[in-house]
Structure to design on (418 residues):
């Protein structure tokens, strides 16, 4: 039986208070102060047809936490408060930040668990002085408990909004909770900071979403822990600009049985994320996440003549003048009747954090909903929001955006209020 929202606030904890985190916080504050609309948020603006031809707004369909009942906290190795983070990132203008400056300045991140070996381009100045991974995990667990008490929260969720870490692969330390805990005690260098946050959250019964391509949640030890403690998880990597366009365009091309010979994607980005991804080790993590999208949509094994020889290339370049205003170019070489070639060119001048913030909000609210309904472990239905979605059975995810939306709506209908 689901438990309903209460008159106590929902806490949203963000590891990483950079462009995405500060834009999310400022956007929620702006929406509840009547300074803007939460455009891009399905949880706030979406409607679902319950079967009678009369679509209901999602906040009426299911018992979601209201924006007025949300409080924010988090950790960051650099920024002193949410206002400074928002001003530094340059995503939002003075017309929003000036009106919200008092509230934003009052959101001060806690000192972060940070290891420069995983994010070589950043220098952490607001970091915990704990000795070793185990002590760091305990410190984060204490932070979560204190946040709950200080803000009177009976429910908390965590959404990773931090930087992309250097590429890594699962190994023996990730095979079980016991193995991971021993590795924490041994201060094993193969444990990334994001994994310590995930462990601390799950041990605190806090649902977790991973907005980066980091190897944070899709590990046997984290899935085991989430299921054992009855906590829902969702990862990985917010589906924002170029990948969002791929999951919209590719299903259409496949539906028309048009062939694709190549898909070349390149991006320029000038924010902290772009700076971090300028390091090849960190870019590799993002590249793996972005490259996996097309195959499951196009099913080349079913249509080898159309998609079996597809060259898919992804590039990201750090270009400081662009700031958070990412530009993604796609050149798609397609072919049609009798094999004659054609081209599609897409130039998406997007705002990375403007697209990511509503995703982070929806993941937080929907994970809280899932937790109250007793859901545990990987939440396949949240793949709509993610570039490399986890699946509960370990199978390859379905990246078709429209299939993913159908799955999300079906889950919400199952949990229909009343």
């Amino acid at each position: 039986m689901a438990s309903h929202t209460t008159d106590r606030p929902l806490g949203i904890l963000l590891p990483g208070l950079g462009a995405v985190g500060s834009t999310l916080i400022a956007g929620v504050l702006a929406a509840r102060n009547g300074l803007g609309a939460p455009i891009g948020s399905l949880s706030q603006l979406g409607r679902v047809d319950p079967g009678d031809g009369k679509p209901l707004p999602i906040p009426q369909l299911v018992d979601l936490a209201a924006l007025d009942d949300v409080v924010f906290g988090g950790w960051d190795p650099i920024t002193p408060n949410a206002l400074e983070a928002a001003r530094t990132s340059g995503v939002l203008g003075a017309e929003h930040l000036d009106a919200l400056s008092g509230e934003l300045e009052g959101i001060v991140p806690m000192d972060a668990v940070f290891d420069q070996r995983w994010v070589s381009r950043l220098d952490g100045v607001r970091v915990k002085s704990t000795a070793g991974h185990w002590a760091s995990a305990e410190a984060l667990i204490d932070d979560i408990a204190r946040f709950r008490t200080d803000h009177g929260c009976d429910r908390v969720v965590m959404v990773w909004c931090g930087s992309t870490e250097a590429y890594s692969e699962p190994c023996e330390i990730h095979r079980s909770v016991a193995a991971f805990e021993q590795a924490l005690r041994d201060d094993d260098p193969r444990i990334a900071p994001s994994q310590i946050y995930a462990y601390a959250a799950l041990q605190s019964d806090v649902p977790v979403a991973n907005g980066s391509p980091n190897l944070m949640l899709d590990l046997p030890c984290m899935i085991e822990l989430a299921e054992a403690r009855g906590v829902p998880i969702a990862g990985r990597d917010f589906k924002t600009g170029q990948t969002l366009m791929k999951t919209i365009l590719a299903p259409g091309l496949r539906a028309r049985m048009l062939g694709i010979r190549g898909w070349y994607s390149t991006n320029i980005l000038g924010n902290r994320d772009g700076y971090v991804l300028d390091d090849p080790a960190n870019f590799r993590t993002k590249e793996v996440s972005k490259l996996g999208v097309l195959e499951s949509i196009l099913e080349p094994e079913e249509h080898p003549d159309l998609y079996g020889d597809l060259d898919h290339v992804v590039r990201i370049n750090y270009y400081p003048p662009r700031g958070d205003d990412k530009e993604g170019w796609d050149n798609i070489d397609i072919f049609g009747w009798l094999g004659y070639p054609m081209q599609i060119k897409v130039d998406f001048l997007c705002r990375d954090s403007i697209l990511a913030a509503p995703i982070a909000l929806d993941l937080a609210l929907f994970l809280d909903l899932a937790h109250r309904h007793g859901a545990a472990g990987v939440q396949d239905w949240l793949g709509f929001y993610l570039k490399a979605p986890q699946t509960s059975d370990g199978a390859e995810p379905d990246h078709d955006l429209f299939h993913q939306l159908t799955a999300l709506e079906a889950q919400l209908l199952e949990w229909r209020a009343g």
The CA atoms of residues 48 and 325 lie 32 Å apart. The radius of gyration is 21 Å. The chain is about 40% helix and 15% strand. The mean pLDDT is 94.
